[in-house]
Amino acid sequence: MSLPSPPAGYDVSKAVEASTSNCVLTVGFDRQSNHIPRFIVQLHYRIDINPIRWEAIARMDHNETAALGHNIYQEGLHVDAARRSHPPVKLRPSHSPLPASRGRVIRACTDYLDVNTGYFVDVYEGNVSPGSPPRWPDGGQTPSRFIRSRDILEDMSRESTAEDPLSTGELTDLLADAEGTTPESIEHGAEEIEIAPPGDASVVDE
Q1: What does the radius of gyration of the chain's CA atoms come to, in whole angstroms?
Q2: d(CA 23, CA 17)
Q3: Is 177 helix (H, G, I), strand (E, B) or coil?
C-alpha cells in the first residue's frame, strides 16, 4: 500500500491508522533519556487514487530544541491547516494545561486530528472557512476572529511507499517506551487533555 512518507529527521517516525479510509496520520518524535524534546503529528488526505497521492492537510508540532521552534509549553498548541486553493492557516484552539509528558500530548494530538478529520478535509476543500464551526442545518455560529501573520509553513506534503501504518495502541506502546512509562499512563493522560474544537479556534491567516 502506498502511504505518505513519515516525517524525516526524527528518531522515531511512523504512519498511524486513521478512522477514515481516505486519510492516514504520521508521527515523528525524538528520544532523549525518557524525554521527547521534539515531535510532529500530521493528518494526510488522499487527493488522488491513480496514482495514489497524499496531501498533508493538518499538522501539530512541538520543538524545544531550537530557538525558533514552536514550544507548546510557551505558546500553546496550534494546528497548521492546508487549503487546496488558498494559503495555509494556523488555528489556535484553547486547551487545558498540558502535562509534562510529551507522549501524552502526542497521543492527544493524534486523537484530535483523527476525530476532526472531516473538518480539516472540509477546510482543505474550501467547504468551510478555517475557524468556522462545522456546517449545521441551522447555519452554525459566527466564525472566530482572524489574526494576521506570515508564520505559516506552506509545504507539508510528501509521498512514498511505506510500511503498514501502526494502530493507535502500537503508537501508544512506542510513546510509553520512549518515556519509560506504561501505555495505560499515556492513554489515560491523553484522555485528560481537553482541546477545543477547531471550529472554535482563533485563526492566523497570511
Answers
A1: 16
A2: 8
A3: helix
What is residue 67's DSSP assignment? Answer: T
Cβ–Cβ under 8 Å, residues 174 and 14: yes
- In this predicted structure, what is the pLDDT of residue 132? 74
Q: Mind listing the pLDDT tens digit for each residue in 169-194?
A: 999 999 999 999 999 999 999 999 99
By DSSP bridging, strand 146-148 and strand 12-17 are unpaired
Give the CA count within 13 Å in the CB-facing half-sphere of 108.
26
Domain that holds residue 56: 2-205
Beta bridge partners of 205: 148
Residue 170's CB is within 10 A of a number of other CB atoms, namely 14
- What residues of the chain score a pLDDT lower than 70? 1, 134-162, 205-206
Considering the entire predicted model, what is its pTM?
A: 0.85
Domain count, the chain: 1
Cell output for 192: 485528560
Which helix H or strand E contains 74, and what residues bound it?
helix 72-75
Tell whether omega for the bond before 51 is within 30 degrees of 0, i.e. cis. yes
